[in-house]
Amino acid sequence: MSAVLDNRYSLLPGRFEFLMGLYAENYHRLARLFAPQELAPGRYVSRVEDGLDVHLHVQERHPYTLELELTYDFVDAHTGRRAPSAQLRMYTDAHVAEALHCHPGRHLWQVLGPFSPAHTVFQHRLRMNRFLSRWLEYLAEQRHSVNTLRRV
User: Fold this and answer.
1) Is-contact 106 85, C-beta < 8 A?
2) Can you say how many angstroms the Cα of residue 81 is from the centroid of all Cα atoms in its chain?
3) Average pLDDT in the chain
4) Which of 56, 110, 113, 119 lies in the 20 to 30 Å Cα band around 127?
5) Neighbours of 87 (CB within 10 A)
6) Least confident residue range of 2-6, 78-82, 143-147
């Protein structure tokens, strides 16, 4: 019986470590791309030739965290808000950044429902942060950077 439990729990740290590694990767991608840890609270736009404008909103700045929104200038027909949109939290002391949610104007509990199982929440966080990682990589390939970012 303990061998079964040991195997079950030995899988969990690997998945958790992967998610924490993804958070660290997202932090470094975001820091290289737009350096939000250096920006004052406010709205910024990055414009590149032959590309879509990217909007970065530094919403709140605390001693060790930043609250951000990253989005394109597309408007979702159902919500009337910009999409895709990612609500982000950057932990400047731990050098990790997580996508809190990728649904405009909605919190995690509104997307998954109240009292969702931990596995469901974990899988959702993994999907959101994989999306963020790919999106940040794509933005870098499109040549968005600190140099293309302007305060609006």
Assistant:
1) no
2) 17
3) 84
4) 56
5) 23
6) 2-6
pLDDT-based confidence at 5, cuts 50/70/90? Answer: very low
Helix (H, G, I), strand (E, B) or coil at 43: strand
Under a CB-based contact definition with an 8 Å cutoff, are residues 99 and 90 in contact?
no
Closest CA to 84 of 111, 57, 109, 104: 104
Tokens 């993994």, located at residue: 126
Whole-angstrom distance, CA of residue 18 vs CA of residue 125 = 12
Residue 13 three-state SS: helix
Q: Does the pLDDT value for residue 129 go beyond 90?
A: yes
Strand order in the sheet with 65-75: 96-101, 82-91, 65-75, 54-61, 42-46, 149-151
Lowest mean pLDDT among 12-21, 97-106, 133-142: 97-106
